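In full, the data.
>
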Amino acid sequence: MNTPSRTPATARGRRTLSGVAVAAAAILALAVTGCGTTTGGAAGGDGPSASVEEGFQVGLLLPESKTTRYEKFDRPFFEEAIADLCPNCTVAYQNADQDTSKQQSQAEAMLTEGVDVLVLDAVDAEAAASIVQQAQSQNVPVVAYDRLAQGGVDYYVSFDNHTIGTVQAQALIEALEAEEAGEDAEIVMINGSPTDPNAADYKAGAHEVLDGQVSIGMEYDTPDWSPDRAQQQMEQAITSIGADEIDGVYSANDGMASGVIAALKSAGVDDLPPVTGQDAELAGIQRIIAGDQYMTIYKAIQPEARTAAEMAIAAATGEEYDGGEFGLIEVEDAGGETVPAVLLDPVVVTEENIEDTVISDGYYSIEEICTDAYADTDFCTEAASS
């Protein structure tokens, strides 16, 4: 687990991100200071010497496209931030489609083409160490985005992943209490991919809350965060435990929650137990208003993407990045390397606060959520009358 180590000198002020994506983006623009032509990267030594005035090339490597956030939000937000902060810079982009070897080849091609900095969201954090090391050998700094790649990256930006797991689990406990499931409530845990260090953090945070509070009937780690595999795992759990004996499901993200819910419905469960999620996918929000999914985690991607852009510019120009409003902490990757990082706070979304989170931040509109299939839900009916 990538456990943050905080010291008074680097401790960050914690704050809720809901409703402040735009304001945070504006403030973050001030975080990179003096981005002129210099030598020496963020990690020190004979590092890069690019300049904002002349512009340079930034490589962006994202892990997959099954999760809608990467193509719909992360990529465009990052590209917009680079265009704003460094108008003469260009972004080279590739998506690995959840293929470790493909991401390795994409990174090698970018390095051959001469990118000045890599922003890397690793498919496999351990395997990505070879990408980091190859970049370092060419004096190209690496910013780890959303997942902490091994190998000693220059900077890392993500969300407080341990906290995500704890708040998911706490929301599930609260839902079980509201349904008076009792002390013997039995749940199923559908965790994320074993190659994603974030998944390990979510899992650890969830167990911190759930252990001793509920009975965990079955638990699975889900390769590639696959909704199809999650559905198969849930079918196995239903066969083992019995559909009527499952009081709740911890699902680490929205895509897998869709597979969980499909398995429950196929088993003839009409009154669905509370199911958690993450990423505030549009389909997840729609399942929430339909009563199929209990909650999701909203991660305000715009400030995350902008922070990554600022880190990339600082690293490429040899300037130090101070974390802006959020401040830097230190985290340790699985290989024992200490990395300066910004960790943002997650927000729990249930039906009660959809308007105050994903809608007020411009993540989705009422029209996008309230399509014909959901027009008769209480949420959409109230929205139409207001």
